[in-house]
Amino acid sequence: MYHPRFPLRSPPVIGSLHHGASTSKTTIFTTTGQSLRKRPAIFLDRDGTLNLEVDYLRCPEDVSIIPGAAKAIARLNAMKIPVIVITNQSGIGRGVFGWKEYQSVAKKIEELLANDGAHIDDVYVCPFHENAENEYRHKDHPDRKPNPGMLFKAAEKHHIDTKRSWMIGDKEIDLEAGRSAGCRTALVLTGYGNTANPELADIVANNIEQAIEQILSNWPA
């Protein structure tokens, strides 16, 4: 598999693409220098939560950050709260686009966030899908949301206390993954949020900025 590299934050810190354990090929873009003390974090879905929903987003020019998202993430950054993106990308597994296209979109998101002084600390990507091609075909991969595998891997690597953490997303699979990992959950009404069952979430907000505002009003819980 192609092993890309791209800067994760501004000023750039280069992260390497790694595979997970030998039974998983979920892609992890990592940074170094993490504290050994367990701490709460904010886990975010990407498409429809951080950026506007685009079917199989693969072109940088189609990337738009949801209004207020960068400002809210910058606020978390200033508070030293880890911000970790957890995203299914079946388009890779299905052959709709490749890792190179994924990277170009990720870099554009990074640049747009950096314009407002925000950065993402880590990104976990799952290309597996039951209808995927070749090595990515898997009926129910433990890393694909609604399964919590990516959250558990992030928690282990970054020494995260999931019971004090939050998962924010616009789909029921985001909420289910968060709950299965022990996190509290926030449903945002951007993306597919209006189609999700609000009873699955601890809080419901119009967008990520409002969700983070509510979460921080009682932080840390």
Please, could you describe this protein's structure?
This protein has six helices and nine strands. It is globular, with a radius of gyration of 16 Å. The longest helix has 16 residues. It is 27% helix and 17% strand. The protein has a single domain, classed as Rossmann fold (3-Layer(aba) Sandwich), CATH 3.40.50. The N terminus is likely disordered. The chain starts with a strand and ends in a 5-residue tail after the last helix. Helix 1 runs parallel beside helix 6. Strands 1-2-3-6-5-4-7-8-9 form a nine-stranded mixed beta sheet, sandwiched between helices.
- Strand order, main sheet: write it out: 1-2-3-6-5-4-7-8-9
- What is the strand content? 15-25%
Choose one word for the global shape: globular
Q: What do the pLDDT scores average to? A: 87
Structural Rg = 16 Å
Helicity level? 25-40%
CATH architecture: 3-Layer(aba) Sandwich
The CATH topology is what?
Answer: Rossmann fold
Note poorly predicted spans.
1-25, 30-35
- Helix count from the secondary structure assignment: 6
What is the CATH homology-level superfamily?
HAD superfamily/HAD-like
